[in-house]
Amino acid sequence: MAAAREEILAALAKRTMAPAEHPGSEGPWQSFRDRVAIFRERLEAAAGECVPVADEGRLAEAVAAIARERSASRVLSLVAAVRSIGAASRDPHDVDGVGLAVLEAQLGVAENGAVWITDGGLAPRSVFSLPEHLVVVLRAGAIVDQMHDAYARLSFSERGFGCFLSGPSKTADIEQSLVIGAHGARTLTVLLLGDA
Amino acid sequence: MTHAENARAFVADDVRAHWHDEALWFVRAKRDAAMRTVPEWEILRTRAAEIKAHALSRLGDYLVEFEANATKLGAVVHWARDADEHNRIVLSLLRERGFRRVVKSKSMLTEECGLNPYLERHGIEVVDTDLGERIVQLRREPPSHIVLPAIHLRKEEIGVLFHAELGTAAGESDPKVLTEAARRGLRGKFLEAEAGITGVNFAIAETGGIVVCTNEGNADLGTSLPRLHVACMGIEKVIPRAADLAVFLRLLARSATGQHLTTYTSHFHGPRPGAELHVVLVDDGRSALAARPAFSPSLSCIRCGACLNTCPVFRRSGGHSYETSVAGPIGSILAPARDPERHRSLPLACSLCGSCTDVCPVRIDLHHQLLSWRGVLARKRLLGDGKRRAMQLAAFVLARPRLYERVARFARSAARALPSGLVGRLGGVSKDRRLPEPPRESFREQLARRRARGRG
Ligand code: SF4
Q1: Measured between CB atoms, does B81 come within 8 Å of chain A?
Q2: Which residues, including other chains, have CB under 8 Å from residue B327's CB and lie 6 or more apart?
Q3: CATH, residue B124
Q4: SS3 B228
Q5: CA distances from B344 to A97, B329, B354, B433 (A)
Q6: Low-confidence stretches of chain B (pLDDT beneath 50)
C-alpha cells in the first residue's frame, strides 16, 4: 500500500506537464433582479414546489396541510417550530416509514432552485433520502444568485454532510422519460418564509 | 472486433438506431437550452479548463493535501496502482468486516476496474442501484453510455426484463410503473446492505471532502444506511478548493442532461457518526497519461457525456460498439492510451466534425486529440496496410502539383462516368458513403480560363 502511494507520487513528480496558474474565483457572475422569482421557476423546473409562508407562526399549519395531502402519518421534523409525529430513534433504518421529513435549509440558489441542507448532527443522514416526502424551510432572504455566492457562504472545516438538493428524486433512465420518485423523496416542497 | 464491425450490427436495427440518434440529440438540445440561461457560459468553460490544468500540473501535491485533510476528518485513504490493486483493496475492506451485501451507485471507475465481476467471483452480492445500471446489470451487460447507461434499450425490452426478474405484469412497459417496481425491489437491498460503494465526482484537496452527484438519491441512500462507505476515484478527480466546485457544478448537469444541477449534490466530509469512510485513489494508467502532453488534457474530463450525445458517430453506432467502459469521443482517446493495439479502430470512429470539442465543458480539444491518435497509430503501424499505402500514395501525389493536376482531372471524369455507389464497395467506413457530384472544372482550370478572358 505504502509502495503504491510512493510509486504513484513518484510517477507524477517525473511527468512534464506545463505549470499553470489557478485562475481564482472572481466573476463576472450572473445576478438576478428578482432572485425569489427565478428560484421558484428553477425549482419548479426541477419538479419541486414552492409555497410562501408569511411567518414562523404559520409553519406548523403549512406542514400539517402538506402531511394531510400526502397522507403522511409519521412526520419527522428537524425544525423547532414544527413538531414530529411518531418518534424516531437514532438508527438510520428507522427513518424507513417516515412519510414526511421537515428540514431547514441554510441557503437557496436562484440559478438552479437548489437548497443547501446539512445533517448538523441532529438526525440520521438517511433523513434526506429515505422519507417519502420532504419539506424544506427556507428564508427568502437566504437565496443567493448562483453557486459562486453559495460556496462563498459555506464552510467545510468540520466533519459533516451537506447536500444541494434540487427538487425530488428523479430518473429518466427508461427511454429518457422523466419519472419522479426514483429512490428518494417523491415530492419536495420548499416553504419560503417571509415572502407572502 | 473493430468499431465499424460492431456498428454494423447496431445499425441493422433501423428503428432502434434512429430512435437512439434522436433521443441523444434531444439531450443535446436540452443542454443547449440550459447553457443559454448562463450568460457567462464560455467564461465558465475557460475557468474549468484552467482549474483542471492547474490541478493536473500539481496533481501529486493536491493528492497529498487531500489525503492529509481527509484523514484528519476520520476517513481512511488507500492508493491503488491499477485495477487489480483497487479490487483487492475493496474486497479486503469487506472481508475484514465479514460483509457480503453491497449496494453500489454509479461509478465509471469501478466499471473500468471490473469491480462487480471481481467481487461476485469472491462471493459478494453487489447490487447496482442507479436505475439504468440496475437494468443493464440484470441483463448482464455493461452500460452503453456514461450518464445514460440503458439508452440503447427500448421500454418494451425493459418491460420484458422486469417481468422476468421483478415480477411486473407481462406486457407492462410504462416507465412510471417499471421505475416504481425497481424502487420497491431496491428499497429492501438498501435496508439490508452492509456496505455502500460510490464513485466520486470531485475530491477537494483543501477540505478533504468528496462530492457525489446523482439524480435518484441512490448514493445518499447507499451511504446513509450501511456502516461502511467505500468511495472509489481516479486520481485525476481532485480539485484544489471548495470554491472551484461552483465552476464545475454549474457546467456538469447542464452539459449532461440540461438540468441546472443534479438533484442530489452531496458533500461528504469524513464518515458519519458510528460509520466508516474509505477513499480509494486509483492510478490505472492516469499518471502515464499525464506524462504525454498531447493527450494529458483528456484527464480533465468530468464525465458529463455531452461529447457522446453530440457525436454523429456515437449516436448512430451505440455505446457498445466501442467495447470500452467509457465510449464516444472521450473514450476513443482514453482507451488507446491503455491498449493501442486493441482499441486502434476507435480514433477512426470520428468524422473530425469537432462537435465534441464545441460542447466539452472543460474545453478538451477532443477532435484534435483523436486526429493525433491516428498519427500515433499510423507510426506504430496499427492502422492497417491498406490505409497506410493509400496515405503514402496521397502524400506522393500531393507533393507534386503537376502530377496532382493530371490525377485530379482523370478522377473528375472517372467519377462522372462511374456509378456513385461504387465507393461503397471499398468496404470499411466507405460502405455507406456516396460520391458527391464532381465539378466539371477544377479551381485552377477556372482561374486559368478567367485570366485568359480578362486578358483577351
Ligand atoms: S470529454 Fe468533455 S464533453 Fe466529453 S464527457 Fe468529458 S467533460 Fe464531458
Answers
A1: yes
A2: B144, B145, B146, B308, B314, B319, B320, B321
A3: 3.40.50.10420
A4: strand
A5: 53, 13, 20, 22
A6: 456
A150 phi and psi angles, rounded to 5 deg: -65, -50
What average pLDDT does this structure show over A130-159? Answer: 96
pTM confidence score: 0.92
Q: Cα–chain-centroid distance for residue A4?
A: 37
Q: What is the pLDDT of residue A195?
A: 67
Using a CB-CB cut-off of 8 Å, the residues of chain A touching B154 are 175
Residue B204, phi then psi, degrees to nearest 5: -105, 115
Residue A63 is assigned to a structural domain of this protein: yes
Q: Is residue A19 part of a domain?
A: no
Number of domains comprising chain B: 2
Q: pLDDT at position B455, please?
A: 64
Q: What is the DSSP string of B133-164?
A: HHHHHHTT---SSSS-TTTTS-HHHHHHHHHH
Pairwise CB contact (< 8 Å): A125 & B272: yes
Contact (CB<8Å) B261/A182 = no
Number of domains forming the structure of chain A: 1
The pLDDT value recorded for residue B444 is 84
Ligand 1: which of B298, B307, B313, B333 to mutate, most ligand atoms within 8 Å of CB? B307
Give tens-digit pLDDT for A13-47. 986 667 899 999 999 999 999 999 999 999 999 99
Pick from B284, B299, B318: which residue ends a domain? B284
